[in-house]
Fold this protein.
Amino acid sequence: GTHTHVPTADERVLPGGTALITDVGMTGPYEGIIGFRADKSLQRFLLQTGVRLEVAKEDVRLAAAILDVDETTGRALSVQRLLVPDHGP
């Protein structure tokens, strides 16, 4: 894949019962750059130094896929994208 951490909208169930989605997206803080504080990530990139990255704290999201599976055959019946935002305490 492109490793962009962006959810795709291509979920489907193949004829044989296999559920498919290319990328469910990133689970973690969307505030920064792939989950890390933007200032530290930019400093590390621009200065090419070993600056320690720090996890961002805001706009945390859960990205997942929900499957409905036939318990007898083990085949997927449906697949649905899920993106849950953090609404804070």
Notes: The CA atoms of residues 61 and 74 lie 29 Å apart. The chain has one domain: 12-85.
